[in-house]
Amino acid sequence: MVRIGMDVGGTGIQMGVVDDQGRILEKGAVVTRTDLPFPEQIAQMAECALDTLRRSGYGLDDLLSVGAGVPGVADQRTGIIPLCTNLGWHNVPFRDELRKHIDKPIFIDNDATVAGLAESIAGVSAGTSSSVFITLGTGVGGGIVINGRVWSGAHGIGSEIGHMTLELDGEPCTCGNRGCLERYCSATAIIRMAKERLEFYPDSLILEDCGGDTSKINARMVFDAAKKGDPLGEKVFRRYVLFLSQAINTITAILDPEMFVLGGGVSKSGAFLLDAVRAEVPKYALFKDAFPLPRIELARLGTDAGIIGAAMLQ
Ligand SMILES: [Zn+2]
Q1: Average pLDDT value for residue range 54-69
Q2: From CA 221, how far away is CA 150, in angstroms rounded?
Q3: Which residues are within 8 A (CB) of 307 and not within 5 positions of it... i.e. 6 or more apart?
Q4: 308 φ, ψ to 5°?
Q5: What's the gap in Å between 174 CA and the centre of ligand 1?
Q6: How far is ligand 1, taken at its centre, from the CA of residue 164, in Å?
Q7: Nearest to 92, CA basis, from 36, 13, 28
Q8: 218 CA distance to ligand 1 centroid (A)?
Q9: pTM, whole model, 2 decimals?
Q10: Mean pLDDT across the chain, nearest whole number?
Q11: Are 142 and 157 in contact (CB under 8 A)?
Q12: How many angstroms does the Cα of residue 181 sit away from the middle of ligand 1?
């Protein structure tokens, strides 16, 4: 028996037929067409999914379920996606619409949540009974897995850890609040924090790297500068690590998970980031030295995590 996983993104939708071990047997993709009415977008996805299933050598009788990870809030109870700004979706009946084409159990969840689930089945957190996945990309997302099942709360916003408040009067956030984790630990935040301080560091490597054009500054440039000992790069990096470590400590106080998994584009800085976070977290550990620290690891599955995790939703 197989399952289909869909990784719904703002520019493309990747999908795969996945076996019960979390292995991808066949892949497919379709371009995201936000210009089309919602039912037509779903019809295209369904067509691609059925085509991918056919190419995998399996048929509808072998298909257990279809899962989708979306870059927004998904309400598994109702099958409705209340909010997915990248695709311009507001309160769309995703499950009901997709079921018109594929009459199988259909599951939806947030993309960071499904990536966390994938890691807990076929990746770095496999074998743990509780883990929290933190995706450090353009934004910051979270995925909570407890006893093999995802936890997304009563309304689908239960793992929006990017919007936990870290500074009461902090940076304004897209969610309407201030001082959210995402304002300090996303790639966007790294760029902002570097630009804010650039005038005090006219000799910064970052300025050299972007050729004097500050609009070209990206997160990798800032962290690369930090690696080379550039004072501005280091300042931003230390602030980044401080906020991320505080967030990890706060989540530990609520969930006490066995493992934190760091994924997303910023996590590609690898051991440089991982070692710094592992060194910082113990400073704020609860009841110091009385309990083991949570393990902190880098994600292992890369871009396939979205497909695998979506397929494994149930
Ligand atoms: Zn926010």
Answers
A1: 97
A2: 34
A3: 5, 6, 7, 14, 15, 16, 18, 24, 27, 118
A4: -60, -50
A5: 6
A6: 7
A7: 36
A8: 21
A9: 0.91
A10: 95
A11: no
A12: 7
